[in-house]
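Section 3.1 - Work completed
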Amino acid sequence: MQISTTRTISSVKNVPGGFTLIEILVVIAMIGILTSAVVINFSPGDATYRLRADLDRFTSVVEMARHRAMMRNRDWGIHINQEDYHFTEYNPEINEWIERIDRTFKRTPWPNSATIQLEVEINANSYFMEIDDLPDILIFSSKEMVPFRLILRTATSAKHWVVETDGISKVQVIRGQI
């Protein structure tokens, strides 16, 4: 009986089997730094973007108020001043405008440093002469509304924003030159 033994000698000398923990952590840290730099530079944190988003929200809520006025068969109003805007609903039983405090129609501030200029074609006093605290813009139960033009200017931009409607078509946002 013959027994043979084979001995294998490794020809590779001291080759590392992978990355060290330090190398992996350095690469992960570099990826994190690069990713955060890209996200910060391309994120919509720009003041113009935020202003446009606020105006888009305003137009959406106005359109929702138009639908709600038609569904409830009640006139609605929008009160606009330099600080904020809010919605009211006319209650004919008590002859008053009741402020809407639900989440969608709550009092909402304008963007910081925005100057507001409102132009309406028809004054609310011609419809509701005997009522105090009239809204600046009327939304009728027929889904029509008083034609208006709202101009927003900011100190940081050479352009202004215009929100407008003819009273029948949807409210739209336009960017214009001064």
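Second construct:
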Amino acid sequence: MRNLTKLGSYISNRIGKAIADYSLIEDKDKILVAVSGGKDSLSMLKLLNERRKWAPVDYKLVAAHIESDYKGGCNANKIELKKIFEREGVEYHFEKIKLLAEKRKVSCFWCSWNRRKALFTLADKFGCKKVALGHHMDDIVETLLLNMLYHGEFAAMNPRQELFKGKIVIIRPLCYVEENYLKRFAKECGFKAQVSACPNAETSKRRVMKNFIKRIKEDCSYVKTNIFRSVSRVKEEYLGL
């Protein structure tokens, strides 16, 4: 039986479509779920765990939260996370990393790279071939525009991405879900809002892209979906390559 609200069911169905379209979860998978403590990762964990009750494939979840010594980072309330993990009945692990060990300026890239490295190490430790990240449609669309406008590249976050010759597979089950639905679902679930203390949060290029898309959406309500679909609808005959 599906123990979800109407909103939860909608998001779960979008997750199910993503799983089917990109073969994100397969039978006997053991998945390391990266949980920052924010609305996206907690919603993803809850919905993936709920789907285990009736999904046609059997899979296991291990929740992982990466803590760091950087006070401006994404460290969540460990006690609250532990309560959520135990309420969901999932295996979990907290891992500490040192971002300030080299006494260098902590950039978005440096922070992300070290957290990702820690996740891959944990995945290997717990025998998880797949690592689930909570990137939603907005994240993917913003990344695509960032790469195009600031780096001159047509590159985005893939819903499924194999690394190290297939040893690790990154999956993004929320790739078909817009951020506003996750905000509402997290509120329904009583997940406490996590305010980012990162000094780069409001001045980052990603924030510029978010505001840019918001302005365009006033004229085209489907702008995010259109940008997302463009990755798989490339008309090579018009590229002149």
